[in-house]
Amino acid sequence: MTNIGYSSEYILVAERIKKRFGGLIAVDGATVKVRRKTITLLIGPNGSGKTTLLNVIAGFYKPDGGKVIFDGKDVTGWPPHKLYHLGMARTFQVPQPFYKLTVLENVLLAARGHPGESFAAPLQRSKWLPREEELVDKAFSILKLVGLIHLWDQPAGQLSGGQMKLLEIARVLMSGARMILMDEPIAGVNPTLAHEILQFLVKLRDQGITFFIIEHRLDIAMQYVDYVYAMARGRVIAEGKPEEVVSNPVVIDSYLGG
Ligand SMILES: Nc1ncnc2c1ncn2[C@@H]1O[C@H](COP(=O)(O)OP(=O)(O)OP(=O)(O)O)[C@@H](O)[C@H]1O
């Protein structure tokens, strides 16, 4: 693994990323840099390439050009599971827990090195690693942190949509992720819970986790994020503090034009 000496100020640098789907250029030379211990937001009109860029960074798509540097290492084209082991994880817009398993079991299965990490592995307690107790302690403390502790023995299928999102965050934390990528973490949740989820991300940021998120509900998200990138037609058209970016005429035009 090469350390290419990128500034340690940034946990992630995605440089001149290109991604094509047939004749369509979804991401056209976009560069984003994410500072450690920040919540960095990616905005832009529908179809501007945000999710594609996130998927390239998280290893779900191989880029047609550009580089992804995570923690000083060139991880361009690495698959998601390798990035997961390095400490970068992506949650999905629609969280997908194992519905019949309990909340606690769902969190435990996200632990790195746990036999359940391979989906084919049996779930019998006897097959768990000796460090099971330690993992259970860690899972409980994470459930406490995300406010789901009272539901630990409930099947995940019984959680509300907002609680599912919290469970997804808990699972990503259990994996030991230092950087979390999220596509619309507050989509479809009521405003109270949306604020709670973002306040929770702020708390985790203050504990050292870095977030790179896509969100359309700017009225709520802008209050909590540290830095914003705006995309249009596959390119980054503006970056800066939230208030600067939302008042930038180029950004406003991109939404109106879209
Ligand atoms: N798997 C795919 N195959 C073909 N085209 C795709 C694929 N994924 C995305 N696209 C196209 O690439 C462009 C960028 O899409 P992308 O989903 O990245 O935009 P977005 O900014 O995330 O949009 P939204 O805000 O609506 O989620 C769009 O024109 C989209 O139709």
Mean pLDDT score, rounded?
88
Small molecules held by this entry? adenosine-5'-triphosphate
Domain count, please report it.
2
Tell me about the largest β-sheet. 6 strands, mixed
CATH homologous superfamily placement of the largest domain: P-loop containing nucleotide triphosphate hydrolases
Q: How do the strands of the widest beta sheet line up side by side?
A: 6-7-8-3-9-10
**Secondary-structure class:** alpha/beta
Distance between the termini: 41 Å
How many helical stretches? 9
Q: What is the CATH C level class of the largest domain, in words? A: Alpha Beta
Shape: globular
Number of strands: 10
Instruction: Give the helix proportion (percent range).
Output: 25-40%
Oligomer state of the chains in this structure: single chain
- SSE pattern: EEEHEEHEHHHEHEHEEHH
Query: Which CATH architecture of the largest domain would you pick?
Result: 3-Layer(aba) Sandwich
**Beta-strand percent range:** 15-25%
Q: What would the CATH topology of the largest domain be? A: Rossmann fold
- Which spans of ≥5 residues are poorly predicted at pLDDT below 50? 115-122
